[in-house]
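Quick one, probably user error.
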């Protein structure tokens, strides 16, 4: 494979590690920065940041001529076919993302490419919220370039997953390689940089690619906070928090796995709400800080509220609901989010019919029956035997659980639908794209 000539804008932590690794892999890399001190250090073979293994790597690549540095952006652009932007995106005083440094780099790149006919790929590797690239950065580059993106200049993103002290190892062994691009063709020059790695490569849209980085870091922070709160509770209980979390992490079927990490609708059932409630109540009684645990149930309620607002926004008053138990395959209605939604719809005067083949009023017993009697005392009048009865009744169909997969609603219902399994978490633009791709 032909190696590439790459300009890396911003030779701080991410830029220096990325540039050195790209050079090691045979590419010709020029680091670009406005800080003359960083340029001078790199030209002498000294990295401007401290990272295990980076000193030797930079020294080797500078000596063999594959890694150079300059403050001359025009010269760097003229001598390369791709630019990776790795400048910082610090927080503003309000906590928002400061993208000014990225904008300045894009202005410079656009101006350097404006007068020529050179094909070029611009890659955002800096961490930016979804929408910033599309709504703020793309117009900046297009104005400086004097033409629309996508003809001879492409703008993509390629988030990094490097941790300080293990950055070189992380570069060589990433969890995946993610490229946000308009299509596979535009992503290919970036994917080629990593084709020697064994990691899975993923091409997606630029908004989703940006969100993956934030999702990963937030999940890491969530795990630290969760482990600490369980640890503090363990101490109060007289248990060993570190041992409890060690054992918890042995479970790769549910705990450390993709299980439950599929965004859709709220959780429910007889276990999760009850047990979270018990832990948080104990923490309150013992005055143990547990902000994260206490936020779980309120977050779940927020999802339920969002579902009701989605129904309200649709405007129809005659509703059909597919799935009532907290998940398909069970008749357990205790704290089912579908039951809570149905209760709220009835309370607001909606005309509701429900289909769930797993639920029969005559078979409900014990706590399950008591729960329904409190929340949906007239359930027998709402349930129907066949899905067609719901289709004939409804102006708006709500798909609550995977029972919807078995009732052929796409061909048997002609009205508007709300799919609670995805409509709260998938943007309308993405749904339209998915619909086009399946036709």
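Nope, works fine. Designed sequence:
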């Amino acid at each position: 494979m032909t190696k590439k000539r790459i300009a890396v804008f911003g030779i701080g932590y991410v830029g220096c590690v990325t540039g050195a690794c790209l050079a090691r892999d045979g590419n010709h890399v020029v680091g670009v920065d406005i800080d003359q001190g960083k340029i001078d250090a790199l030209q002498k073979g000294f990295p401007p940041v401290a990272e295990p293994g980076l000193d030797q790597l930079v020294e080797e690549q500078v000596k063999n001529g594959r890694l150079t540095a300059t403050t001359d952006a025009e010269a760097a652009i003229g001598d390369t076919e791709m630019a990776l932007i790795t400048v910082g995106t610090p927080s503003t005083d309000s906590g928002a993302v400061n993208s000014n440094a990225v904008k300045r780099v894009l202005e410079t790149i656009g101006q350097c490419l404006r007068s020529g006919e050179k094909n070029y790929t611009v890659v955002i590797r800096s961490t930016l919220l979804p929408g910033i690239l599309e709504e703020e950065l793309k117009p900046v580059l297009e104005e400086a370039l004097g033409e629309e993106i996508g003809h001879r200049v492409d703008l993509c993103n390629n988030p990094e997953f490097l941790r300080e002290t293990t950055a070189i190892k992380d570069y060589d062994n990433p969890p995946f390689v993610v490229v946000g691009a308009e299509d596979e063709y535009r992503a290919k020059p970036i994917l080629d940089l990593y084709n020697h790695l064994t990691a899975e490569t993923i091409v997606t849209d630029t908004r989703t690619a940006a969100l993956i980085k934030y999702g990963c870091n937030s999940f890491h922070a969530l795990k630290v906070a969760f482990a600490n709160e369980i640890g503090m509770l363990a101490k109060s209980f007289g248990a060993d928090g570190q041992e409890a979390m060690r054992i918890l992490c042995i479970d790769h079927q549910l705990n450390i796995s993709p299980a439950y990490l599929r965004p859709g609708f709220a959780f429910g059932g007889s276990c999760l709400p009850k047990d979270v409630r018990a832990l948080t109540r104990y923490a309150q009684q013992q005055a143990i800080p547990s902000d994260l645990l206490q936020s779980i149930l309120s977050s779940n309620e927020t999802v339920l509220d969002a579902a009701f607002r989605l129904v309200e926004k649709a405007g129809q008053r005659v509703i059909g609901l597919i799935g009532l138990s907290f998940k398909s395959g069970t008749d357990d209605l205790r704290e089912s989010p579908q039951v809570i939604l149905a209760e709220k719809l009835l309370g607001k005067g909606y005309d509701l019919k429900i289909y769930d083949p797993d639920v029969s009023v005559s078979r409900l017993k014990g706590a399950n029956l008591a729960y329904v009697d409190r929340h949906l005392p007239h359930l027998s009048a709402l349930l129907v035997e066949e899905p067609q009865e719901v289709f004939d009744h409804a102006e708006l169909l709500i798909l609550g659980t995977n029972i919807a997969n078995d009732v052929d609603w796409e061909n048997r219902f002609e009205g508007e639908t709300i799919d609670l399994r995805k409509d709260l978490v998938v943007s309308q633009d993405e749904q339209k794209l998915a619909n086009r791709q399946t036709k």
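Confidence is low (pLDDT under 50) at residues 435-439.
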